Amino acid sequence: MTAAAAPAELDHGTSGAGGAAGHGGDHGPSTGISHVKLAMWVFLGSECLLFGGLISTYLLYKTRANGRTLPTDVFDIPFTSVSSFVLLMSSLTMVLALSGVSRGDDTAGRAWLLATALLGAVFVGGQVYEFTSFVREGVAFTTNPASAAFFTLTGFHGVHVSLGIVMLMSLFVSSVKGKLTRNNSETVEIVGLYWHFVDIVWIFIFTVIYLIPAD
Amino acid sequence: MSVEAAEADPSEAAEGHDAHHPTDWAYVKIAIILAAVTALEVFTYFRSVLDWGVALVPSLIFMMVVKFYLVITWFMHLKFDNSIFSKMFTTGLILAVGVYLATLTAFEFFG
Lengths: 215, 111
Description:
- The longest helix of chain A is centred in the last third of the chain and has 32 residues, at 145-176.
- In chain A, 71% of the residues lie in helices and 0% in strands.
- By secondary structure, chain A is mainly alpha-helical.
- In chain A, helix 4 (77-102) packs antiparallel against helix 5 (106-136) and helix 6 (145-176) packs antiparallel against helix 7 (186-211).
- Chain A has helices at 5-10, 17-20, 35-61, 77-102, 106-136, 145-176, 186-211.
- Chain A folds into 2 domains: 1-33, no CATH class; 35-211, Four Helix Bundle (Hemerythrin (Met), subunit A) (Up-down Bundle).
- Chain B has 2 domains: 5-80, no CATH class; 83-111.
- Chain B is built from 4 helices and no strands.
- Chain B is flat, with a radius of gyration of 18 Å.
- The termini of chain B are far apart.
- Chains A and B meet through helix 3, helix 4 and helix 7 of A and helix 2, helix 3 and helix 4 of B.
């Protein structure tokens, strides 16, 4: 194989989304779909098992008070509703960011990425406030099995949101440096998939843990 | 639902290209529906205003599924992308639901 022939051979199979995604064509998929995107979907499928386990554990322990205050006794539903709404709207700003980057509108892309990160930060801030108010009201991590399961579940979700904010800010910085263009908008889509997944997990948590009565 | 899929071409979107995703306005309309459903969910909390009775839990689960479906199909583009992505995610989801329903049943969660 000559040096001149090598690039052409390496380009085989990049006609799908991966090729369009602008990964240089060096490692394009032979399946016609983006392997990075497929990997993210497989990862999200596996995350269902993680959160399914945490939610199930909480459901099994939610009435184990050991004679002390249960998390359900100190829930502030109006406050959590606002937090839920904020996270839900961050999904809208996320798709608008992807839309902006995809059509080459860097300014819109950056603005919506920043808005998404800010909404995520508001959600995490709300969760920190909720946790501290719970502790003040006598519900800490080690208070009883119910509180341990509750803090583990919502804490894991909060960590996921926080990681998402880090990824969003990385994209924002890349965009400011001019490294994020419509040619590699798939990166934004991959981060967006993660972000929306975090949102749908909260949709589930909000209903099952907060809104459905414990008794 | 008034939001038309015609704003994107599923047959072309099967390739996974962003260019065939819905318009920004379509996303905004989906977000408005999600916000309305969330408001209705929160309304169920105020039982002094309206007691949903035995319909409460099924209604909440239905609204949760509607929101879940709208986010994964529209915002996560499963409606427009290659079906293998749906299959990968659905496999994990069904596995998780099956495993944990079995676990909850084994621990007599459902009485």
